[in-house]
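Continued from yesterday's entry.
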Amino acid sequence: MRVIVACMVLLSLSLALLVSAEEVSPLTAAVMKFEHEYYEMLNANQSTTTPLEQGKGMTTAYNYATATKLFWLSATAYCTDNPSLTSWTCTSCKLFGSFHVTAVMDDTTNQGFVGYFTGLPSTPIPGSIIGANEPFVVVSFRGTVPSKIADWIEDLSFSTQTPFSAKYPNVKIHDGFWKAYLDMKPKMMTGLDTAFSMSGARAIILTGHSLGAAMAELAALDLKLNEYQSKYYATYTQGTPRPGDANFASLYNSVIGASFREIHHADVVPHLPTMSMGFIHGPTEVWFNSEFSSYKVCSGTNGEDPTCADSLKLPVSIEDHTHYRNVSVSGVCTSTQVDFHLPEPKQVTHFDGMERMESQPTKKAPVHKIILSEDN
């Protein structure tokens, strides 16, 4: 452990001049460089498989239209104006469409909401009996406050706990993420009971961005194991930090029907907490290029696919973390009325020029705002 810390400190000194003021601190950049080298070392020592292979394969049948529809729910979790959220009149609310809110979770630090709706462009759980036109219950968690992201990254701890120890004593998860979720759980459960009763839904979708994405994954596993065992589960998230260790990733992979983690190019947050400290992602990663014009659906068995975001040598962009689909995730809810168009990216198998990112800052995508007609 001391060797790792010493290496990170030395690397921070060498990288101090390579990171712009708009990006992460030199220390965080040093951690990211060390992390990439650590990951390459792990893979080099494997004879036939990566060190992060999971048993059961997760679905890779990603549908961009369905994911985009659900993205508006992640963005709506940033609505701190409760009246506009509960009445479903915020900008991102209107972009999503008809939705019934059954609970708003707010402990002054974290926030989210519960509700239900009917119909998606495609089934959110490919390969299951759940159809696209069914009613769905949703839990959406808010991410980290944008102005504090750099500090939040710097202060991110590596402590873990084993909340499922009665049945799964070796499954470790991030202590801070778990505590944040537990603060939301009482109101979430009230909202879920109401939503299931009113909708008759068989499936629950959990969404979120940043910290909210980690809470979404933890909530999905907790609800499946301890609360609504008969329901079908899917998570659609953006910029998800690693919630737990390899045992968590394996268990999550075995009981959750579908999980799609979108990563915008060099977004730094999905690479934290680090693999060198024992944290691992489960599948399925969906990796977008900087301009959001193309994406790759990564391995369905390895959440740390070496051909996707982990291939970057220095993923240090906060800009990529705060912007998905070329919009500010936290700003869509209250956006002013300006022209807005979503990208329509193509699925590809290889991103030319993305694998060798060194010290160059990520190309910043244009920030778009939204215009809605008065009829909406």
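--- second protein ---
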Amino acid sequence: MAHVSSRLKEIAMEDIPNITSDIIEELNKLNINSVYQLAVQSPFELALEFEDTSLNVESASTLIANARKILIENKVLTNEFSTADEVLEKRNKISRYATGSENFDSFLNGGFETQAITELAGEFGSGKSQICHTLCVAANQLIENSRHDDAKEIDRHSKRGNIIFIDTENTFRANRVHQIAEQRGLDPLPILEKIFHCKVYNSEHLESVINDLDKSVEQYNAKIVMIDSIISLHRAEFSGQGTLAERQQRLGKMLNKLRRYADIYNIAVVITNQVVSYAYGSHPGFDYMKAAGGNIMAHGSTYRIFLRKSGKNRVATMDDSSYQPYQRVKFSISENGIQDANSYKIEESDSHW
């Protein structure tokens, strides 16, 4: 996947082969206003959205394919077939967003990766939300440091380095971001102004937000999308075996869309996941935990990281990755956010973390 500049390439809808003004008008009614937004659509869903029968599934598929072709020609996407050395060259150009914890970032080969979905799974208090809050601060700092444009030409809300935080469990705390920034010697206000928080109340709301996430990414020019958590609402609303199939289907559709967004917009997607516990053998009191969501969630993420408590520290395990080996890293949580376990002396007063 080719590297996309921080400002999306200006590509007109009229440049798409065989598109008509009537189709563009219909797409605009659906709030699909760019080639990027069209390229991430599902042919079946797009055909259903049209008010008349002027666009069937086959025609929608051709239209979306032509939109992707335009992005390929503009080097936003790679050719349908590329040699392995071309794939490697482009992979070496992806962006990574570090947390500031040297060991944890090394564990991620430099940080959270664009064009990928990184899943953080673990029980309550294992550090999922703390990693997200730390990344809000650290990523903003790195994005700021990587600017090449004249600062006068940059609008802080739309041009550079914004983050979308989709909150399904009421875990986002602006004062925590403020605290981490201050502890790291940074000005909290510009960082807070770059985080766009979206509070979600039910599963249908979450699906709607993700369905329109391409528009939000463009509107806020987001570089990172965080969802904390991806499964909590569906898990609460679809309880029992009778609703399991529908729940999994809905989760699969959301993850499929997130993968397409990550690819086309060159963004990092970070999702948190809950766990389920199983009795371990015949030993009462010993539970085995694994990430919730079954195979749909397992196959939907590029990287699956399992978090667990280890005394007053936390341990992150790389459970699944196409690129990295099975490995573990220990980290701590303090007023500074997450950091190396061996660089922070744990005191009794820090037990609230």
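The chain has two domains: 1-93, 94-350. The longest strand covers residues 313-321. Will compare against the first tomorrow.
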